Amino acid sequence: MLATIPRHFLWRWALVPALCLMVLLVATKSSRADEGAAEAPTAESELPQEPGFFDVWGKKIEATHESIERYILEKSVKVDDFFGSENAPGEKPTRYQLRWRNSLRIEHDGTVKFGPSVRLNLALSKINDRFRLIIAGEDEPEPATQSLPRDPGSPGFDRTTPNTHFVNTELRYDLVRTPALKFFLGAGVQVKLPFEAFARSRLDYLHTFNDTTIVRFGETVFVKNSDLLGETTEITLEKLLDRGTILRWSNAGTASQEIRGLEWGSELSLIRELSARSAVTVTGGAYGNTSSSTIGNNYRLFALYRQNFLRSWLFYELEPELFWHRTDRNPDAPTFAFTFRLEIVFKGSSLGRPAL
After folding, report:
1. 4-26: pLDDT as tens digits
2. How far apart, in whole angstroms, are the C-alpha atoms of residue 125 and residue 130?
3. Residue 11 lies in a domain
4. What is the CA radius of gyration of the chain?
5. In this structure, are residues 189 and 197 in contact, taking their beta carbons and an 8 Å threshold?
6. What is the pTM assigned to this prediction?
7. Averaged over 20-38, what is the pLDDT?
8. CA atoms of 356 and 294, how far apart (whole Å)
9. 4: exposed, middle or buried (Cβ count in 10 Å: 0-12, 13-18, 19+)
10. What does the buried/exposed string (b/e) look like for 125-134 if buried means 16 or more CB atoms within 10 Å of the residue's CB?
């Protein structure tokens, strides 16, 4: 039977367990090292030892990461100083956070796809503490099915349908910022030809029913290229089952002049915190459009394991998923895919930093 399967199919699928095993072994080694560090030192440990290969390279990687963080902070401070006031009230610092993700996706037919994504959040406190500059770029493997919008009203993030391979910038101004209510105005442009400008307003409201149950409501109104109006409504209900376990029901619907009907999606997730550094999420979702004769056009079942390992700024994710499409007549056969992600976080603040 194996002789009938293409060779490229076999080695690509063999890559999945190999990657998983390698990452888990590294994470286990890191966990054991942390436990060993907490134990009382022995006589042998007091003897000087030559640094190993991984120790040397670990220090080099750490130094490189710190150097990149300082470089990004210097550029961020220069931008804030150039547009801001020298006598900004409150002496609030310039802050930033950058997330760089790399995804490796293996499809059911053995196809391997790779792509990065970057998201920078820059607080321009010297201009105004309520201003934020968001720069996002994504070239991740195109998802095979729908998912809930990650950032409604922002091109590339605003639809339940797959919409990837973009770079956009946005300037936000927070009008209201409280623990229960947030409201901001934003405007930006998607960097592509022809350019796509957009503006939006977003309202987020959090209501607490009791100590274990909350509901989140989000409303986004957006306009693209001055003539394409739209809005997205989001409702999320969360229930704390026990310490470290959350049941979440998320729903979203988008109506716009550029799409027919109402695009909607609904996901039910069980989130479990395994430790201070790891968590797992199991999610089932249904997605569709009111213009279709079927209730749901696409279905998705996936699990996401996220682990912080080796360094506080380094994460990996394992995501197996099963999805299928339903037509007016018969549903398609379920399709499987597996995604491995590596995420590096850079962040910095000018608070306590020496002047340039």
Report:
1. 434 443 344 444 444 444 444 44
2. 7
3. no
4. 23
5. yes
6. 0.76
7. 45
8. 61
9. exposed
10. bbbbebbbbb
